[in-house]
Amino acid sequence: MAMAMASASAARTTFLDGGGSSSFTQKLAFHENGLGLRAPWRGGGGGGGMNRIVHCRLRSLRPKTQWPIIPEQHKWMYEDKPELQKAIWHKSYYPKEADHPNVSKKWYIVDATNMRLGRLASTIAYYLRGKDSPMFTPSLDMGSYVIVVNSEKVGVTGRKRTDKLYRRHSGRPGGLKEETFDHLQKRIPERIVEHAVRGMLPKNRLGRAMFRKLKVFKGGDHPHGAQKPEPLPIKDKRIMLDMEPQF
To answer: Of 5, 27, 108, 171, which residue has the fewest beta carbons closer than 10 angstroms?
Structure first.
């Protein structure tokens, strides 16, 4: 207590002018206990004086203790493990981008034949984001690569084949173009799957990086055999068009 008071008295009282106005003066002085700042404001203009106390913690006046400290009732658990005594009570682990390089990510493959477009896209986005990992972090790209083959055989329900429209614009006046699902599937079938998956990813640079890990191909051939892709785990029981809904 005496040391705190001595340090407080040693620190000079500081005066700060508020915005260059002579009617407003800030007076900052250390508390007697040395753990905060006292700042009484003096207002002018006939409104009367107004005193406020602002408490600010001063890190320089805190005792220099080693933190974190293993509680006394838990020390017996780490007597024979000195390497864990300093790390076990540190802050929670937060994954880093360097912990998940692209060379260590898995490769999956899925055949889109007779699969529902929406359910297939949501399953692909699930693995592109890395939500299957117990260390999933929304701010990191820790997902897997996904290869989609036979994209021209993906299906939709109801009247979406003729009523669902895909729009694009050239950027010039009158440059809006529309085409149905059936027409686009005959022309560029890969774009249908890419459009559905892109809408389920984050709309920022992280989402664009995730989207680049999606490889969609027309037909059953693909050039990524060297990566030895594994079958994509599918938990959705209603993803196939020829399956009856199970409730």
So the answer is: 171
How far is Cα 56 from Cα 225, in angstroms, rounded to an integer? 62
The per-residue pLDDT for range 70-81, each reduced to its tens digit, is 677 777 777 776
Give the pTM. 0.64
- DSSP structure string for 127-179: HHHTTTSTT--TTS----EEEEE-GGG-B--TTHHHH-EEEEE-SSTT-EEEE
The Cα 57–Cα 42 span in angstroms is 23
Residue 98, helix vs strand vs coil: helix
**HSE of 57 in the Cβ direction (CA atoms, 13 Å)?**
3
pLDDT tens digits, one per residue of 2-45:
554 444 444 443 333 444 444 433 444 444 444 444 444 444 45
